[in-house]
UniProtKB/TrEMBL annotation:
Pfam families: PTS_EIIB, PTS_EIIC. This is PTS maltose transporter subunit IICB. It comes from Aeromonas cavernicola. The chain crosses the membrane at residues 21-41, 61-88, 95-115, 135-158, 170-195, 201-224, 320-344, 350-371, 402-421. The lineage of its organism: Bacteria, Pseudomonadati, Pseudomonadota, Gammaproteobacteria, Aeromonadales. Its main location: membrane. Residues 425-446 are annotated as: Disordered. Residues 449-527 form the PTS EIIB type-1 domain.
C-alpha cells in the first residue's frame, strides 16, 4: 500500500528482494518432502526389502506424491519471475505477478525467435552450444534462476513506473495497470534478442572449466563440487553437471567391450554389466558420494547452528522451516530450502559451503568410495551404497558426514554470532539491540490479539505512512516523519522490536501474525 513514492535505498531494495524469495522457497521445502518420500517408497530396493509397500494403491499414492512434488523443481524459475514482482509491488500486486509470467514467457519466445532465424533450432550441435532446452514448451536458452530474477526485477521496475500510466482518451482502455504487461512484452522482447548474443560466452567459459576439471587429478572432483555449488544460484550449474555426467569431460572407459564416456554413463554401464566386479572411482568421484558429506552431515549441522543462534522466543517459529529443509536435503537431495536461508544474507557462508562440498567430493574419491547416481541423498546411500555391498565402502560415509556436521555447526554458529548474520529467527540490524526483551504488557484486542488503532497511532497515524508491506515476521514501512514513530508504545502493544533503517524506512518486528496486523492497518487507513 502506498500513498506517494518514497525514496528507496539499496538496503531497502535488497531487503525487499530477499523477502520475495521466501514464497517459492517455502514451496520448494514442502515439494522436497513430497518428492523425497514418494521417490524413496517407489524404488525397487525398498519394495523388495519391505514387500508390504508393494501394494497397488500405496504405490499409486507414492507415485502421485513424486509427481506433484516435482512442481517446484520443474517450474522454479517461472515461480521466481512471478514472485519477485508480486513481492516488490506496493499496489496492483496481481497485475505485477501476471506481468512477471508474461515477461518470462516473452523473454523465451524472443530467444526462440532469434534461435530460429539464426538456424540454431533443429541443428543438434548448435542447440548444444547454446544450451537449448524446452522452457514452458518453448525451445529456448535455459537461463535458470538468474534469468528469472532479472525478469522479475525488470518487471517490478516497469510496474512501479507504469501502473498509473495515463494514455490518450482514445487509448484509455490500455492505460493504467493494463499498460504494465504491454510494456513488459515490448521491453522483455528486446532483452530476449540480446540474450543469445552473450550466452555463448557463458557456455564457452563453462565448457572450458569442465574440460579443466577432468584433467586435474584428485583436485578435479574438488573443482567440480565447488563450481557446481557456486553456479547453482545462477542456474548455470546444469551445464557443468551435464558435461561431467554425459561427455568426455567426465572421462572415457571401456565397459563390457564398449567405449563409454561421461561419469554417470560409465557408472550405469558398470551397474548393468554382469562382468563388472566394482565401480570405477574415477567415475563415481563426480557422482552422489561427493555430495554426501555436505548433504547428509554439513547442511543439517548448519541448520542446527541456525536454530541454536535464533532467539529463544523465535525457535518454535523456525523449527518447521529448518526441519522441512533438512528432510528435503537428506531424503530428497534438495538443498535449496536450506541454502537459500543463508545464501543472500551471508554470501561468505555460502562460499564456505561450496568449498566444503568440493572437499567432500575430493575426500570420497581419495578414500576409494564408489557410490554412484546423482542426488547424494539417503536413498542413494542405501540403494547404490549399502545394497551394493561393502566394496562401495559405504561405511565411510557416516564417518565423513559426521565430521562435516561438526565443522559446519562450529563455523556457522561462530560466524552467525560473531557477525550478527540475519539467519532465520534473528534480528536484521544491530540497532535492534532490545528486540530480545519481552514485550511490555499492553492492550491487544484486534484480530490476532493486536490493537491496530494503537499501533497506527504509534506509527504517527495514517498520514505518516507512505508505504506499507510485510514479510514473514515484519511490517515494512516508509514513513514521512520518523520522529512520530513511538518505539515504546509499539513494543507495549505486541511488537518484538523496531528497526529504523534510515530517516524514512522502518521495520516493526511482529512475528508470524504480522499479516493480520498489516490487514488491520490497511483497513484503518482507508476507513
Amino acid at each position: 500500500m502506498a500513498k506517494s513514492p518514497a525514496k528507496s535505498t539499496i538496503w531497502e531494495f535488497l531487503q525487499s528482494l530477499g523477502k520475495t524469495f521466501m514464497l517459492p522457497v517455502a514451496l520448494l521445502a514442502f515439494s522436497g518432502i513430497l518428492l523425497g518420500i514418494g521417490s524413496s517408497l517407489t524404488s525397487d530396493a525398498v519394495k523388495q526389502s519391505m514387500p508390504f509397500l508393494d501394494n497397488t494403491l500405496l504405490q499409486l499414492l507414492f507415485l502421485w506424491m513424486t509427481k506433484v512434488g516435482l512442481v517446484a523443481f520443474i517450474y522454479l524459475p517461472v515461480m521466481f519471475a512471478v514472485a519477485i514482482p508480486l513481492g516488490l509491488a506496493r499496489e496492483e500486486k496481481g497485475v505485477a505477478a501476471f506481468a512477471g509470467f508474461v515477461g518470462y514467457a516473452t523473454l523465451n519466445l524472443s530467444i526462440n525467435f532469434y534461435l530460429t532465424v539464426a538456424n540454431v533450432i533443429g541443428d543438434a550441435a548448435a542447440e548444444k552450444a547454446y544450451g537449448v532446452k524446452s522452457i514452458l514448451g518453448i525451445s529456448s536458452i535455459d537461463t535458470g534462476i538468474l534469468g528469472a530474477i532479472i525478469v522479475g526485477v525488470m518487471v517490478a521496475k516497469l510496474h512501479a513506473r507504469f501502473y498509473t500510466y495515463q494514455m490518450p482518451d482514445a487509448l484509455a482502455f490500455f492505460g493504467g495497470a493494463r499498460f504494465v504487461p504491454i510494456i513488459t512484452v515490448l521491453v522483455l522482447g528486446v532483452v530476449g534478442l540480446l540474450v543469445p548474443l552473450v550466452w555463448p560466452w557463458f557456455a564457452a567459459g563453462i565448457n572450458g572449466i569442465g574440460a579443466g576439471i577432468s584433467h586435474a587429478g584428485p583436485f578435479g572432483p574438488f573443482m567440480f563440487g565447488t563450481g557446481e555449488r557456486l553456479l547453482l544460484p545462477l542456474g548455470l550449474h546444469h551445464i557443468l553437471v551435464a558435461l561431467i555426467r554425459f561427455t568426455e569431460a567426465g572421462g572415457s572407459q571401456l565397459v563390457c567391450g564398449n567405449e563409454v564416456s561421461g561419469a554417470l554413463n560409465i557408472f550405469y554401464a558398470e551397474l548393468a554389466c554382469a562382468d563388472t566386479k566394482g565401480f570405477s572411482v574415477s567415475a563415481t568421484s563426480f557422482l552422489s558420494q561427493g555430495k554426501m558429506p555436505a548433504f547428509l552431515g554439513g547442511l543439517p549441522g548448519a541448520a542446527l547452528a541456525m536454530y541454536h543462534c535464533a532467539k529463544v522466543e523465535n525457535r518454535s517459529k523456525i523449527k518447521a522451516l529448518l526441519l522441512s529443509g533438512v528432510v528435503a536435503c537428506v531424503i530428497g537431495g534438495i538443498t535449496e530450502p536450506l541454502e537459500f536461508l543463508f545464501l543472500f544474507v551471508a554470501p561468505l557462508l555460502y562460499l564456505f559451503h561450496a568449498i566444503l562440498t568440493g572437499l567432500g567430493f575430493m575426500t570420497m574419491g581419495l578414500l576409494g568410495v564408489t557410490i554412484g547416481n546423482t542426488d547424494g541423498n539417503l536413498i542413494d546411500f542405501l540403494v547404490f551404497g549399502v545394497l551394493q555391498g561393502t566394496a562401495t565402502k559405504w561405511y565411510l560415509v557416516p564417518v565423513v558426514a559426521g565430521i562435516w556436521f561438526v565443522v559446519y555447526y562450529a563455523v556457522f554458529r561462530f560466524a552467525i554470532v560473531r557477525f550478527n548474520l540475519t539467519t532465520p529467527g534473528r534480528e536484521t540490524d544491530s540497532r535492534e539491540s532490545d528486540a530480545s526483551d519481552s514485550p511490555v504488557p499492553g492492550t491487544k484486542t484486534g484480530h490476532g490479539g493486536y490493537n491496530g488503532e494503537v499501533i497506527l497511532r504509534a506509527l504517527g497515524g495514517a498520514g505518516n505512512i507512505l508505504a506499507l508491506d510485510n514479510c514473514i515476521t515484519r511490517l515494512r514501512m516508509s514513513v514521512q516523519d520518523m520522529d512520530l514513530v513511538d518505539d515504546a508504545t509499539l513494543k507495549a502493544n505486541g511488537a518484538i522490536g523496531v528497526i529504523k533503517l534510515d530517516e524514512h524506512n522502518v521495520q516493526v518486528v511482529i512475528g508470524p501474525q504480522v499479516h493480520l496486523v498489516k490487514n488491520q492497518l490497511q483497513h484503518l487507513m482507508v476507513s
